[in-house]
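In the design runs reported in the main text, the only information available to the sequence generator was the tokenized backbone. The following block is the verbatim input for one such run; it is reproduced so that readers can re-run the procedure and compare outputs position by position.
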């Protein structure tokens, strides 16, 4: 099956596996797009919204419920990855550290990781943990966009004011701010835009690949290009 133009229409969404660490993740043969953010921010709900399968990823009202790297394959061509949330409740310190390490390894070393969706609750003023985490992504040159979630819960004015406050906090770290999106898993707001981002990202990788290798073996060429792009990143040590 060709993968180039079939992103937005998802005809198959399959649970691949739950991995406790990077070594347990499946091979790096498919481009991956990962969701990260604090527990309860709406990662699993957004993954379900994008995939069109409401029961694909487990949605929980208990913060910290998803403790594994959950990997899903779309159209047999690319993957969505539901990463463990950061910011577990007190009492889960040890587990929290372990998950952070798995997530840190994944974000820094997963060579087929194309883009991270860093989720932030649109209804909240900037949270230190989110600000710090975005700083970490920037320092490690992890490619990411910001997605402000649960826009249905607050007024548009509140969403805009929280986004402005957040970008004011992170802007000193960036020459150019990361792209910003909003979404609601309840109203499906933002779905097409986010699928468009995935489409653009895969198209960009494809465009950077050798024209001669794209035609017959499009996907392998794209993955090896994504890996090459990742190798160009600075090798910085883990901050947590
Ligand atoms: N109103 C509203 N609730 C949401 C939205 N997204 C998630 N939720 C709820 O927030 C809770 C946590 O969602 P979940 O997707 O499990 O968050 P995760 O821990 O980041 O994976 C659940 O009760 C969801 O139903 C949204 O866009 N709007
Ligand atoms: Mg979850």
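Verbatim output:
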């Amino acid at each position: 099956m060709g993968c180039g133009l079939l992103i937005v229409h998802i005809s198959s969404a399959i649970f691949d596996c739950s991995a406790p660490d990077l070594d347990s993740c499946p091979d790096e043969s498919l481009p991956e797009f990962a969701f990260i953010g604090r527990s309860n921010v709406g990662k699993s709900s957004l993954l379900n919204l994008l995939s069109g399968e409401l029961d694909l990823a487990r949605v929980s009202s208990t913060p910290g419920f998803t403790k594994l790297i959950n990997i899903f394959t779309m159209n047999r061509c690319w993957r969505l990855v539901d990463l463990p949330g950061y910011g577990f409740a007190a009492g889960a310190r040890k587990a929290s550290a372990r998950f952070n390490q798995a997530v840190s390894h994944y974000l820094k070393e997963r060579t087929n990781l194309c883009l991270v969706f860093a989720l932030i609750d649109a209804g909240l003023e900037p949270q230190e943990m989110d600000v710090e985490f975005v700083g970490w992504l920037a320092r490690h040159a992890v490619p990411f966009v910001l997605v402000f979630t649960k826009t249905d819960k607050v007024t548009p004015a509140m969403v805009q004011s929280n986004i402005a406050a957040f970008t004011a906090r992170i802007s000193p770290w960036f020459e150019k701010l990361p792209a910003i999106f909003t979404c609601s898993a309840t109203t499906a707001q933002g779905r097409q835009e986010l699928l468009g981002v995935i489409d653009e990202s895969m198209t960009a990788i494809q465009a950077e690949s050798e024209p001669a290798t794209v035609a017959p073996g499009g996907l392998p060429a794209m993955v090896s290009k994504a890996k090459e792009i990742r190798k160009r990143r600075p090798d910085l040590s883990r901050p947590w």
